[in-house]
Structures are given as structure tokens and as C-alpha cells.
Amino acid sequence: MTTTELTSSLISTLPGHYYTDAELFQLEQQRVFEEMWFCAVRAADLDRPGAFRTVSVGRESVVVSRNRAGEVRAFLNVCRHRGARLCTEEQGQVRRSFKCPYHAWTYDLDGGLVAAPNLASMPDVDRAAQGLIRVHVREWLGYVWVCLADEPPSFTETVEDVVAQRLGTAESITNYGVDGLALGRRISYDVRANWKLVIENFMECYHCGTIHPELTEVLPEFADGYAAQYYVGHGAEFGSEVEGFTVDGSAGFERLDGVTEDQDRRYYAITVPPQVFINLVPDHVIVHRMFPIAVDRTLIECDWLYTPGIIESGADISRSVELFDRVNRQDFDACERCQPAMASRAYRAGGVLVPVEHHIGEFHTWLADRLADTVQ
Ligand code: FES
Ligand SMILES: [Fe+2]
């Protein structure tokens, strides 16, 4: 299924069942989220050896942790003995090993099987072969990205280049020093909508004039409906009276060290398929990670990142957090308003995209290709 040309102004969206069909969602989990690089956890959240987080990646639970040398490791959260879930908490800290709560098979921080009741009486057991199943990991922008595929796609091509292509150059993102920033605030949203509605919403700004009064005050050009993602290298400019990217346009903080004159007083938004949104403003960076957990439910973790000095000083970040928190709630409300209608007969053949939304059609084609290419 690809998008169909209706007129030069209107092209069709995906049909409604793409947002409601549980089997199709399973296929997406398998062919998209379990095959691509997935931004799983913030590296700084794993602050010492044995600190761990468990995250849903596609249909799997994954444990992300640090070994004794401080290197990030990720494993499928499945005991090799009889399959019990190894870590049941969302986050925690072990001393030197993960011990299964069922029969006490115990794995070191590199996943190797190191102990089990009666293991000594089973000398033929190959402890290496019975270790936890490792998952590929990469660290970038201060986040741990994991890939469940046996042969992961190129991280450079599928992640770094996507950011560079949107911003025009590879250095543009480097200027923000994202991996050196500190977490100022994290807000989790439980959105009752299909993950694609969330992406599509993020990709367009046709709705900005209607639902984002605070954002369009700060970024007046958004009132025209052109998303910042529409043009390569374009960042939406702050209004002339606006002092900072805050809920009331009041002053924010000093601009980040590497941010250039060209990037100052501008907002850049980047979608890294399939589940990351990056928002760059001169004094902070906002990163959204999406976790699709059901065909009609998506968890979103949003991090507001500032220089460590700002966070350590206890500076008031509430006005800058509030701007995008409001934007998020306005966006997610809109997605939730659309979700029930996806099952309506009115949407059987889908809806339409206006010209300022046509780039969403490329996302649909991308998705359809991924699903089609990989179906056996
Ligand atoms: S299932 Fe984990 S030790 Fe038995
Ligand atoms: Fe929006």
C-alpha cells in the first residue's frame, strides 16, 4: 500500500486499519522496532556498574546496564533456564550479578552464567553458551540505542545521517553538545493513540495555529503551518519580542557553548524514525523517546536537558519546561482525539494530507516499504 495521488493538493493518508489492526501492529513491532536502532535509555541514568533499566523494545523486554568496567551492556530480559523474566523492576541496582528470582541462575554484568544451584555437579554445562542473549548497543547524544536485529543496520546511515540531513550538516547537532548535558526534567506521557499518529503529528505544523497558542507566540512562523522539518537546515525563528524558549517568551539561559550565531534564536525539530524526536533551542535540548506498547497506546518519555551548571545551581527551569510540556499535552490530546476515529467507516480509506503535510506521505511510503520488503 502506498499513498495515492488524489489531486495535486491532497494526497491520501494510510487507511484507518493501519492504526487499529493488532496484527499489523505486531508486524510493525517485528519489522520496525525490533530491526532498527531504538533509543532506549539515557546513558547517565545508568550511573554505575550494575545500575539497570528495563525497557520494552518491540515485543521484547530488554535490560540495559553497565558492566564492571562501566561499559553499557544490553540483554534480552529472559532467563536462559526456563525463561523467567530476570529483572521485574523498571530500574534498579545490582551489586555484581543478576540473579533469576525463579531457580537462582546468576549472570555476571556481561551476561555470563556464573552460578546456579548444583552447577558444579553439571561440569558439561557451557556457561558461556548459557549466558544471557546480548543485544547490540551504541551510545550517541548521551543515550543508549539498542538493536535487536542479528545484523543491525548501519547506525551512521539510519540514525546519524538522518539528523545531519535534516539539519544540513553533521556538525549542526554536535554544536549542542547533547551528550554533555544534564537531565533537568523528565515527564512521562501515556498516550492512548497509535504511534504513527504521534509521529505524523510531530512532523507537521498545520495544527500549530489551532492548538499551540504558546508555541506560536514564541515561533510566529509556526502559525503559518509550515513545520520546521519542512526545509532542510531551517530552524523556526523566535519572535522579535521573544527573549527565550519559555512558556511566556521570557528569558531562558545562556546559549549552549557550541551553538552558532546562525542557530541562535531558532528552534529545530528532528524526527529520527522510528521513535525519537529531538528539539534543539539555544539554551536546552528536548528529547522524546516513544515506546509503542499496543496498537492504540504509546508511552512517551520526554527529557529536558540543560548544561550541568544550570541544573547544579538549582536554577528555575519551570518556564522552559512548561512550554514544551504544554505543547506535548496539546499534541497528545489531538492524537487521542483521532485514535477512535481510525476505526470509523468514515476513515476506511483514510484521510488526506494538505501540501504542508505532504512529507508525511514519505513516512507512509517508508513504512509500507519496510513492511512489504520484509514480508516473506
Ligand atoms: S527460570 Fe531462571 S533460574 Fe529457572
Ligand atoms: Fe504540535
TrEMBL record:
PROSITE patterns: RIESKE
Keywords, alphabetical: 2Fe-2S, Iron, Iron-sulfur, Metal-binding, Oxidoreductase
Annotated TM spans: none
Cofactors named for this entry: Fe cation
UniProt GO molecular function: 2 iron, 2 sulfur cluster binding; iron ion binding; monooxygenase activity; oxidoreductase activity, acting on paired donors, with incorporation or reduction of molecular oxygen
Ranges where the Rieske domain occurs: 39-146
Keyword Metal-binding applies: yes
InterPro entries: Rieske_2Fe-2S (IPR017941), Rieske_2Fe-2S_sf (IPR036922), Ring_hydroxy_dOase_asu_C_dom (IPR015879), Rng_hydr_dOase-A (IPR001663)
The protein's name: Rieske 2Fe-2S family protein
